[in-house]
C-alpha cells in the first residue's frame, strides 16, 4: 500500500457486522475467547450442565456407597453371631437389596450424566458445522449466481477453517 493512502475498510454485511455472510435467526455466541465461546454454548441450554454436574456427583456418591454397603455385609458375615446362627438372615438380604438399589441409582445417574454431556457436545458441533455449511453454501451461490434450490453442493464439508472456508480433507 503506498504511503499516505488510507486503508479502505471491508464492506459491512447485514446489521453492521464485518462478516461476509449472515444467517437469518442466527444465535450469537461470544467469540472473544475459547472459554467464553464454550460457556455461551452451555448457557443456551442451562439445564444440561446442571443435570450433568448433579448426576456426576450422584454417580460418584452411589459408587462409594456400594463399597460401604459391601463392607457392612462383609462385617455382618464375619461377625461371631453369623456363624452361630444368632444374627438375623434378613440383615444380609436387606444389605443385598440396598446394594442393588444403589447400583441402579449409579447406572441411571451415569446415563443422565453421559446424555447431558453428549447432548451439549453434539449441539456445539452441530452449531459449528451448520455455520460452516451455511457460509460455504452462500459462497457457492454467490460465485455461481445460482439460487439456493439450483446450487448443487457435491458433499457437505467435513472441516471448516477459521475463516469459514470449507474444505474436504484429501
3D structure, described in words:
It is built from 4 helices and 2 strands, in the order H-H-H-H-E-E. It is mainly alpha-helical. It has one domain. It has a two-stranded antiparallel ribbon. Helix 2 runs antiparallel to helix 4. The longest helix is centred in the C-terminal third of the chain and has 56 residues. The radius of gyration is 29 Å and the shape is rod-shaped. The C terminus is likely disordered.
Concise summary:
The chain has 170 residues and is mainly alpha-helical. Helices cover 59% and strands 2% of the residues.
Detail the topology: elements first, then pairings:
Elements: H1 34-42, H2 47-77, H3 80-84, H4 89-144, E1 159-160, E2 166-167
Antiparallel strand pairs: 1-2
Helix pairs in contact: 2-4
Main attributes of the structure:
two-stranded antiparallel ribbon, 4 helices, disordered C terminus, rod-shaped
Amino acid at each position: 500500500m503506498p504511503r499516505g493512502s488510507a486503508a479502505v475498510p471491508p464492506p459491512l454485511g447485514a446489521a453492521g457486522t464485518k462478516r461476509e455472510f449472515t444467517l437469518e435467526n442466527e444465535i450469537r455466541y461470544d467469540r472473544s475467547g475459547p472459554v467464553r465461546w464454550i460457556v455461551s454454548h452451555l448457557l443456551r441450554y442451562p439445564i444440561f450442565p446442571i443435570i450433568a454436574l448433579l448426576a456426576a456427583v450422584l454417580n460418584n456418591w452411589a459408587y462409594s456407597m456400594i463399597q460401604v454397603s459391601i463392607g457392612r455385609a462383609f462385617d455382618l458375615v464375619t461377625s461371631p453371631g453369623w456363624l452361630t446362627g444368632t444374627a438375623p438372615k434378613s440383615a444380609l438380604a436387606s444389605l443385598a437389596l440396598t446394594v442393588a438399589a444403589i447400583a441402579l441409582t449409579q447406572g441411571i445417574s451415569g446415563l443422565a450424566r453421559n446424555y447431558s454431556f453428549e447432548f451439549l457436545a453434539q449441539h456445539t458441533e452441530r452449531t459449528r458445522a451448520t455455520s460452516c455449511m451455511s457460509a460455504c453454501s452462500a459462497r457457492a451461490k454467490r460465485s455461481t449466481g445460482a439460487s439456493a434450490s439450483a446450487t448443487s453442493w457435491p458433499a457437505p464439508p467435513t472441516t471448516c477453517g477459521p475463516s469459514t472456508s470449507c474444505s474436504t480433507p484429501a
